[in-house]
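Lecture notes, continued. The same structure-token format from the folding unit now serves as the input rather than the output. Read the line below as a description of shape only.
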């Protein structure tokens, strides 16, 4: 007599098969290339397809843990589909197996869409799909009653294999990046950056030294990281080159060796992300070592009709920067160093762009390999294609860092924070307690108009609840707007406030 296995057993069979497939897929990805990982490939495509609201939500909910959240989501969806595959296989074989196999095909297709993808990148996902499909097929086979025992033994065996596979796969996933990174990291560690002219004097007093206030120069390890790269690109500088082409008189190709031989200069620029919420921490300030993009463009000779430079990264991200911002006198550079070291891998090693005054999404391309001189009405960049504004000048903003605690001692307390509008400069900061009048804070000496400045003000708080608010004044004489706007499409506005209880 023939009978079907139970529904629950079928769903579990689907899940066990998919888990085994995914585990093996991840393991094989380690051997081929970390970026060929089924999870990384699908995750990367989802990142690139995600609408603006979804990306905003992810950053708002998970901050810089948004990538982990995405991987968890993909895992959950995969398990759901796998369970469905098991259920389908139970009633309509072999369609469940086909569905399981399609998961692998989806991963393979995703892997192929990546910039600079190797054809071998399809292997981990196809293998994962094949294992999933065969697993579902074998596990959900109709059984006859005398095979009952056999089934449960077989089920136990396959579940164990699946468990082992996922364990190995997870370990592989976590070491994959590290193994590949360690090779490039070793190369990076051996690099001796040339000494440079400096436009990076930090004036006496720029660092107020107030506990809880973000330091005026952000250490690399604390520097915010925002990008669409699920797996950090690992680029051997020996393989790196930059091509400058498009609307130019002469095409230029620059190698790592040629770049390092140019007279590099140090400059200090504060980078800010357009996704930063009012009061948020997607901003940091570093001493960058690099070469002016202006000089390279002058050599290439942009044609008169050009008004934009589309920069591309090794992993396919693009940014559209106004040509003017790259040819005027500001320190728009191809950066190779960050706070005295080669760029950290996650901040764009070996070469990235840094452009004072513009949000990162239109200017700060990491792992940059290509500059196409073009026009705004001809080319669109990664985020402009997703509804963000084509030009992204940084808005006037200020943030309260201190007091950090929500409870403070009544009486005199110091309020301190940072204020910025890169390439315009900050002229002042004002602070208000509750509905009181605006009081002028003390500004620390600015490094330059391209960096944030620290500010502080002692205020007196009666016992009870208070709201402390700050606003910046620009060097152009503008006052930071109180109008509340979300990050999309061109940067958040509004005043930052902190609620504290004085006891
Ligand atoms: N290749 C690449 N470069 C990129 C991005 C990216 O997604 N990919 N994101 C940009 C954005 S949105 C910002 S805010 C800055 C952040 O630079 P950081 O991670 O070094 O702080 O990098 C920019 N450069
Ligand atoms: Mo950003």
């Amino acid at each position: 007599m023939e009978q079907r296995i139970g529904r629950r057993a079928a769903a579990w069979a689907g899940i066990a098969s998919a888990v085994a497939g995914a585990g093996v897929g991840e393991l094989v990805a380690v051997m081929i290339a970390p970026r060929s990982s089924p999870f990384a490939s699908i995750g990367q495509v989802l990142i690139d397809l995600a609408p603006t609201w979804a990306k905003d939500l992810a950053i708002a909910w998970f901050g810089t843990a948004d990538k982990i959240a995405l991987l968890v989501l993909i895992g959950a969806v995969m398990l759901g589909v796998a369970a469905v595959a098991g259920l389908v296989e139970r009633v309509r074989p072999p369609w469940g197996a086909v569905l399981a196999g399609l998961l692998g095909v989806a991963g393979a297709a995703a892997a192929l869409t990546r910039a600079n993808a190797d054809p071998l990148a399809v292997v981990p996902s196809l293998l994962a799909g094949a294992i999933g499909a065969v697993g579902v097929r074998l596990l959900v086979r109709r059984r006859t009653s005398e095979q009952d025992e056999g089934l449960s033994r077989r089920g136990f065996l396959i579940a164990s294999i699946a468990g082992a596979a996922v364990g190995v796969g997870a370990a592989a996933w976590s070491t994959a990046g590290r193994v590949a990174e360690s090779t490039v990291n070793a190369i990076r560690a051996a690099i001796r950056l040339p000494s440079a002219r400096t436009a990076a004097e930090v004036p006496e007093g720029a660092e107020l030294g107030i506990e809880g206030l973000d330091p005026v120069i952000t250490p690399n390890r604390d520097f915010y990281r925002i990008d669409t790269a699920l797996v950090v690109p690992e680029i051997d500088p020996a393989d790196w080159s930059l091509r400058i082409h498009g609307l130019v008189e002469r095409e230029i190709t620059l190698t790592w060796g040629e770049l390092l031989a140019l007279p590099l200069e140090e400059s200090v620029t504060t980078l800010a992300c357009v996704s930063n919420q009012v009061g948020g921490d997607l901003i940091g300030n570093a001493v960058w070592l690099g070469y002016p993009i202006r000089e390279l463009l002058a050599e290439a000779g942009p044609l008169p009709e050009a008004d934009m430079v589309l920069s591309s990264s090794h992993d396919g991200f693009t940014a559209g920067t106004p040509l003017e911002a790259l040819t005027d006198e500001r320190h728009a550079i191809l950066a190779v160093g960050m706070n005295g070291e080669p760029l950290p891998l996650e901040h764009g090693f070996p070469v990235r762009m840094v452009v004072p005054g513009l949000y990162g999404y239109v200017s700060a391309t990491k792992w940059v390999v290509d500059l196409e001189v073009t026009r705004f009405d001809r080319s669109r960049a990664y985020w402009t294609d997703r509804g963000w504004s084509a030009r992204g000048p940084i808005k006037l903003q200020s943030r309260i860092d201190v007091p950090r605690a929500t409870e403070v001692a009544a009486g005199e307390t110091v309020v301190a924070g940072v204020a910025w509008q890169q390439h315009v400069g900050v002229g002042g900061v004002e602070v208000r307690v509750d509905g009181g009048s605006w009081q002028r804070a003390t500004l620390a000496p600015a490094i330059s108009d391209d960096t944030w400045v620290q500010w502080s003000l002692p205020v007196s708080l009666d016992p009870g609840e208070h709201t402390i608010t700050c606003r910046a004044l620009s060097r152009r004489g503008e006052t930071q707007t109180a109008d509340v706007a979300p990050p999309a499409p061109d940067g958040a506005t509004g005043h930052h406030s902190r609620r504290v209880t004085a006891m």
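Point for the exam: The first strand starts at residue 2 and ends at 3.
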